[in-house]
Amino acid sequence: MILDGADVKLSYFVSGEGTPVTLLHGFTQSGRSWHEVIAKMPAGWMWVVPDLRGHGATETQNEADCSMDACMADLEMLWDHLGVERTHLVGYSMGGRLALHIAARRRHRILSVLTIGAHAGLDAGARDGRRRGDEALADRIERDGVGAFVDYWSSLPLFAGLERRGPAFLAHVRAERLQNHPAGLACSLRWMGAGVMEPVWDELGLAQFPFTFVAGQLDHGYVASARRLAGTVPNGRVEVVLRAGHPVHQERPDAFARVLLNHLEHASGSVIQAAGQG
């Protein structure tokens, strides 16, 4: 489905009925990357799944940005269109950073947050170098095209664990990434890369709803980030998934589905308890 905004045609799908859960994909992916996880979840949830700016079938006007704030506005537009007042929010990698940005800036719209392989912004000393690196990658996408970039991106050690799913699954992931466009991916890197993200560590401390921070056991840097995040918020938990790297939900979808269901049930119980105390 397509929702028209001021400078965007936002592509999204909705699956199931019940309490809303919004799923935010990672860089070079699209909402389709969540199909496998959704299929493993029980009934009772309404899955709200957009293609974020720069990705999938979502289109933006010329000169429109792909910033965190622009994506946040798209999501609020989508929630308003669907009549969603508050939602659970789940995000992977880039989508996880966006989820934390929203949790910090739009607390009144959120029931809970679960992130996979995410952080809340780089420390000052690391931001400039990462920004330059992302700009160079954006230039590379525009110069060489999506196919060459996807081959490079897929070869990074961060995604080595996907090989355990076999060649057919790797081909599926590659085909999904190839559906993106050079201008969109470059826009996303320049506006939503880790180097340009405004850190929200301090603001997250004001969020009272439940958080679960997921990382793969083999994704050591993000295990550390998950633990730091859990120490930042009042109601945070860490889940380290064994024998998994960065894309936990794709490397070990059954294990991740159990983590997600446990989070949603725990968070739903917390919301009911809070309402009863109010």
List the helices and strands and how they pair.
Blueprint: E1 2-4, E2 8-15, E3 18-24, H1 35-39, E4 44-50, E5 59-60, H2 68-82, E6 87-92, H3 94-105, E7 110-116, H4 124-144, H5 146-154, H6 167-177, H7 182-192, H8 201-204, E8 211-216, H9 220-230, E9 236-241, H10 248-251, H11 253-277
Parallel strand pairs: 3-4, 3-6, 6-7, 7-8, 8-9
Antiparallel strand pairs: 1-2, 2-4, 2-5
Helix pairs in contact: 4-5, 4-7
Keywords, please?
Rossmann fold, 9-stranded mixed beta sheet, 11 helices
Summarize the structure.
The protein has 278 residues and is α/β, with parallel strands linked by helices. 46% of the residues lie in helices and 19% in strands.
Write structural notes for this entry.
- There is one protein chain.
- With 278 residues, the protein is an alpha/beta fold.
- The chain has a single domain (2-122, 198-277), classed as Rossmann fold, CATH 3.40.50.
- The chain has eleven helices and nine strands.
- It has helices spanning 35-39, 68-82, 94-105, 124-144, 146-154, 167-177, 182-192, 201-204, 220-230, 248-251, 253-277, and strands spanning 2-4, 8-15, 18-24, 44-50, 59-60, 87-92, 110-116, 211-216, 236-241.
- Strands 1, 2, 3, 4, 5, 6, 7, 8 and 9 form a nine-stranded mixed sheet that branches.
- Helix 1 links the parallel strand 3 and strand 4.
- Helix 4 packs across helix 5 and helix 4 packs antiparallel against helix 7 (182-192).
- The protein is globular, with a radius of gyration of 18 Å.
